[in-house]
């Protein structure tokens, strides 16, 4: 075992419950507010969009929520995911640090996204929902939801940001292969889409607009619901299988992380890995460090404000108290599409505010450099998003090399990069840029935060 | 265990030896002949191209050949690969058959190819080779060799058929990401390439020509060797880790296959899975069936001739006694690029001739239909090549449904289809065609077989 590259669990060791950190939050998590009235949002406000079981999970304070057998049965197709000891990377870095990573790229969709997609579709199915709508940017979430819907035999419609629909066609193909229909957003089938096309027939679309389209269709029909791939409490909850498995695997390795690292866009893969370790830190009085890594091109945690803001660009969603760059902040076109979000999950924001979790920003070219080092030592080609975590793990390992500290580093490899080769091409051709915003441009979008008492 | 989707082995259970079926061949395997003299080829003929250790393996009759520790150390990054029980597929088919598949798509390059790439590069490294050349069609082999060379710190140069270089750029990216250089073939750096460009500057290239380029460069420099990804005995040998692992995993499952299925181009993934089970059949007097599945567009085993022929298009390689469609047979442009080879490994051909292995041809659209059924039940998106095995496994399972036979089916999933989404797009758009050759066109290329006494 000592020199094994992988620590595997059997299917019977797949967790039976999700860990709900709401039960253990060290500080109050301010409630979401209605966008118009600024009053706390109630279950009835969410009922048109989500099945009641998920709304209950969204507000639950039960510490553990049982994973239904039918959900576990599908997760078992690829879970438990392997925990790797990065022996080759350690050797290449010449570090005394021990580096472990959890490989979520083994799911059929290639990322952690199916962990919540399967659960969400299950609860929709149980409540008689006939059809689910969602939006997707580059397609990671859309493909995961398509796969889950296929397995539970529910119709799935995905609004994909138009520029990705045409420029990154292969995740679109994946969505179709798993039987879902996918429309470029803006589309002609919604009012929001038609209005956007009327304003500008050549618009390349945006995630905010795609959300509006998917929500509009779901809200109009009781048998149709909407599904979101990150940010919300229940989504983070479903991802905790990652950290629960990793805890068991670290125990088998006879080791325990000094630092836990993950990349953050909306925050779900990071939360999935980190929250069970946050619980252990609280229960066992440990001083585990948690690093949430974001791009300098979208520095929500490191340069944003902890304040109430809309989850979407157009101001239709509930207001969430979170770290935000302002809902009209437009991040640069970096290749880690999954990390281009102006806000952050409320639970992560609260834990950053409570100084349990620390944000860290890394630049795009440094990220790809780390990705290459990883692919050339460990073999696996990482997603650009996941490479943010790799960059920081390597930085920590190199720091340990300087200090001589035998640090134990654990990071989440949220997905593989098989559908991101164009980004690697651009990096290898020296065409990638770094983005660092002048303070005045940050101040501008932060000045537009809604005024909440 | 009974209802598990996956049967996993620990790294310590990775086989310590390859199985060399040459020790047990039921019939004589005619030797390769020199293309000019028609005399058996000796080690000295191969020495300019291959390290001596691989030449020895090519002719060895030792039953087991130890896998060097350094090779096992790299294979352990992803091996042992999982054996899956296709419970969801069985259910969808409503078959009494039990279907198992070995998932070679878990390697970093996404196929079985690294199993031999790592071994070949190791032996080259041991003999002081500084640089390795090879050719690649769609890039599966080139990317596997690039990864292996990166890990042993050997230079790697890949000649990639020009049409693939430009039309399927993402496996090219993978080759570059792993640090190898890749040239479109024909290139300006070889005589063979320059001559081809002089004849037709706009040629789209061919695998045969790319072989000529890679061989030319290797032959000219003692510190440079050449590497081949299929067909040869030592390549098939290195793939037997697949079948050896599968044997252990079937034992853990408490089951044993009635039929073993794999797709065949040059034959290496099929051989890797099948040969250890062929040994068991001989040793234990079983009646296991072996189905080698090829495209109707390249029906080497089902419509070819068992005769001496060249391995390449231009007639430069040794003559091999094999099932062949004739070295100037040009298969149609099907999407399973890895199966477009006019010949077949000598060992497989001899076992087909001895009626141990049976060839079966399947049509492209039927193959993609099976691939979709598989992706929608088991989740995994298969490579078009591997989907030939899936098609046949499904056919066998449906036959068992009719007869009520509780048949045990095992197939090799040689790789994933993440780099083949354009093929799925074409299938979903109804644009794929099937190819069945009229006998006269087959007869034409078979008429050009070299005359060997």
Describe this structure in words.
Two copies of one chain form a homodimer. Chain A is of the alpha/beta class and 453 residues long. Chain A has helices at residues 43-46, 52-59, 69-75, 87-93, 114-126, 140-152, 162-167, 169-177, 191-199, 207-219, 233-238, 241-253, 268-283, 300-303, 346-353, 364-377, 384-403, 421-428, 439-446; strands at residues 6-7, 17-19, 64-66, 83-85, 98-103, 131-136, 155-161, 181-185, 224-226, 259-263, 289-295, 305-310, 319-324, 358-362, 408-413. In chain A, the strands form four sheets. In chain A, strands 1-4-5-15-10-11-14 form a seven-stranded mixed beta sheet, sandwiched between helices. In chain A, 58% of the residues are buried. At the A-B interface, helix 6, helix 8, helix 16 and helix 18 of A face helix 6, helix 8, helix 16 and helix 18 of B.
Strand order of the largest sheet of chain A: 1-4-5-15-10-11-14
Distance between the termini of chain A: 56 Å
The shape of chain A is: globular
Question: What's the CATH class of the largest domain in chain A, please?
Answer: Alpha Beta
Give the % helix of chain A. 40-55%
User: Helices and strands of chain A: which structural class?
Assistant: alpha/beta
Number of domains of chain A: 2
């Amino acid at each position: 075992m000592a020199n094994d590259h992988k620590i595997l669990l059997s299917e019977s060791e797949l967790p039976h419950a999700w860990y709900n950190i709401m039960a253990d939050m060290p500080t109050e998590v301010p409630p979401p507010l209605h966008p118009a009235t600024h009053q706390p949002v109630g279950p009835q406000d969410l009922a048109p969009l989500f099945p009641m079981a998920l709304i209950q999970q969204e507000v639950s304070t039960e510490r553990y929520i049982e994973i239904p057998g039918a959900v576990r049965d599908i997760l078992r197709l690829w879970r438990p995911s392997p925990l790797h000891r990065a022996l080759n990377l350690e050797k290449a870095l010449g570090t005394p640090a021990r580096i472990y990573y959890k490989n979520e790229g083994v799911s059929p969709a290639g990322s952690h996204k199916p962990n919540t997609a399967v659960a969400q579709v299950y609860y929709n199915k149980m409540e008689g929902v006939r059809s689910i709508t969602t939006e997707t940017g580059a397609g990671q979430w859309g493909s995961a939801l398509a796969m889950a819907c296929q397995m539970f035999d529910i119709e799935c419609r995905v609004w994909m940001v138009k520029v990705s629909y045409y420029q990154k066609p292969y995740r679109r193909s994946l969505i179709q292969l798993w039987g879902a229909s996918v429309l470029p957003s803006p589309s002609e089938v919604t009012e929001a889409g038609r209005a956007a096309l009327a304003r500008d027939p050549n618009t390349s679309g945006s995630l905010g607009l795609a959300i509006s389209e998917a929500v509009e269709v779901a809200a109009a029909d009781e048998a149709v619901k909407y599904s979101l791939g990150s940010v919300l409490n229940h989504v983070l909850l479903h991802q905790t299988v990652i950290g629960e498995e990793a805890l068991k695997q670290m125990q088998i390795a006879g080791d325990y992380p000094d630092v836990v690292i993950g990349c953050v866009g909306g925050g779900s893969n990071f939360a999935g890995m980190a929250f069970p370790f946050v619980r252990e830190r609280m229960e066992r009085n440990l001083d585990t460090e948690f690093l949430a890594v974001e791009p300098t091109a979208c520095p929500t945690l490191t340069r944003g404000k902890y304040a109430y803001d809309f989850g979407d660009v157009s101001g239709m969603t509930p207001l969430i108290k979170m770290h935000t760059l302002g809902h009209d902040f437009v991040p640069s076109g970096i290749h880690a599409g999954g990390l281009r979000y102006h806000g952050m999950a409320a639970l992560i924001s609260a834990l950053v505010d409570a100084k349990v979790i620390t944000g860290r920003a890394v630049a795009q070219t440094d990220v790809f450099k780390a990705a290459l080092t990883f692919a050339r030592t460990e073999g696996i080609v990482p997603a650009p998003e996941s490479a943010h975590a790799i960059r920081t793990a390597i930085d920590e390992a190199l720091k340990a090399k300087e200090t001589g500290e035998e640090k134990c580093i654990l990071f989440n490899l949220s997905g593989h990069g098989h559908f991101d080769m164009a980004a690697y091409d651009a990096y290898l051709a020296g065409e990638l840029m770094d983005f660092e915003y002048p303070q005045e441009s940050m101040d501008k979008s932060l000045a537009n935060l809604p005024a909440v008492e």
